[in-house]
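The freezer alarm interrupted the setup, so I double-checked each line after restarting. Inputs confirmed:
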Amino acid sequence: MKRNVLFRRGLLMALCLIGAASALNAQTLLGSGATFPAPAYTKMFDEYYKTTGIKVNYQAIGSSGGLKNIQDRVVDFGGSDSFVKDTDFAKYPASIVHIPTVIGAVVVTYNLPGNPALRLTGEVIADIYLGKITKWNDKRIAELNPAVKLPNMAIMPVYRSDGSGTTFNFTAYLSAVSTEWKSKVGNANSVSWPAGQGAAQNAGVAGVVKQTPGSIGYVELAYAHQSNMPAAAIKNSSGVWVDASLASISASAAGAFPPDSRILLVNTNAKEGYPISALTWIIVYREQKYASRTLEQAEHLAKLLWWMIHDGQNFVEALDYAKLPAPAIKAAEAIIKSITYDGQPVLK
Amino acid sequence: MNDRRFNALLGLAALLIVFVFAGFVLTLVVQSLPAVKQEGAAFLYGSEWNPVTARFGALPFIIGTLLTSSIALIIAIPLSLSAGIVMGEYVRSGWLRSLLNTLINVLASIPSVVFGLWGIEVVIPLVRNLAVLIGAPPYGAGILSASLVLAIMIIPYMSSMTREALMNVPAGLREGAFALGLTKQEVVTGIALPFARQSIFAGILLSLGRALGETMAVTMLIGNATRIPDSLFSLGNTLASVIASQFNEAASDVHRSAMMGLALMLLLITMIAGWFGRTLMRKGASAYGK
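Predicted 3D structure, all chains:
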């Protein structure tokens, strides 16, 4: 009998907690999606909480999951490393908008004796991953690096075994610069690799490259930077050799920027731009009055987005993400202003 | 509580398990239909797995799964049987036995991700050195590394089942054999092992089931390449490892559905292996006259 009372009391308490949590909802924004920008978002949301008291809960479950959640309308916003294609818009119950948040880059790293600074072109990288260039002293690599004494060593390409935005951007770049890559392999979150070894996550690829002499891999800038791995300079479409730096990555988006922000930055035509740069987006519904959403929720969301593309940008460089350049911010401002609640703009 | 209520409760609980299992299989079947429809039988024997062109043939993963599990069994069986015999026949009490017992239990409770990490740090470099020595591709990761670590992961199951089986051999049987003048070795190989072999075999089956479905450690060690392995040093993928790698970011619906198909296949393979083993076991038992 006593136990029964205790049980009931516990149940009552649990119900109260649930009630309290839903009352808090108005002050809490929920998002989920891409893992790539997660460290930047965590930092931004932490700062945002400190200044506004509004909590943002972001679950890094992967871009596909984020897109699914926004499709199903179970989150306020989704995060994705790839933009939604025209043909996929029909999957969403209403019109969505993309807001760019930060820019990242994929760098090509390697493990050679002494780790000399290397220069590589997109075509050479594609042929390495196609299994056509198999030795480090191949004359096509040697031609690009006359000052480096390259060893007679097998090249071991390493790729991401898990589906990822990093792979998407890397293969998008290779498809843009190599017709053979485009026809044989293509561009997706996970592809059928003609050569090499897979490893899970950025950390896995970085780990295998560090461990395997003669290997070459692609990881996000932050991983190469934080684990002191070399990154090849790559020739961009303007013929300039570019190192992956926060400035050159940011510069990749400094060219013409489309009003809906859906643009692949790889193989950018910006003169100083690093050629394997990539935007990441937050995706929300343009019309915020759906399900049981209140105007207050919509306002919180729009204000958060506005803050992210302005003040929030100050926190990203310390985490190896590049800031949005002026043209991208301008486009993003217009997109956020186009968000409505019951037909009326949310931000005045 | 009277008998009838108790029985009803038991029956309900038992039914619930049946429902859960049926629901589970049904989900896998329904969700994998789009991929199976698209590929037909080629889903089983096709060797191309390409999310970009949406071609899904599971043969490389089926071969990878069966290959790694078989090699792991081949490595683990002699080691586990020896360990089980030592614990079940020779060191039946004392500090050495408790030490052995503790070690085996600890080994069985190590999470597989830890085995994976250990494999990356220790096994892969060793295998790479071996590969360099014999002129194989020096990846380190691959079928051999995955199988070695799998073998170590299943040894505790197999050896403790062997130990228990031997401990259950009736003392009278053993004493009678000694009374007839048999040596220790003759008792072990001629009396105890034949008597215990059913349970030992069950232990091997249990380990096989575990090896077929092991995900984390294998994903970390096998090299994740969608190719049919042609040597011990080849990179590969198993059904479980490819699901673990690709499911989260499977962008197209067919790709997702194909993943479900792989899961169904893994379930079927595990069930067939179990059924096959049990049939063998029954045959063996009747041949032995039990």
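Quick read of the result. Residues 106-252 of chain A form a domain with the D-Maltodextrin-Binding Protein; domain 2 fold (CATH 3.40.190.10).
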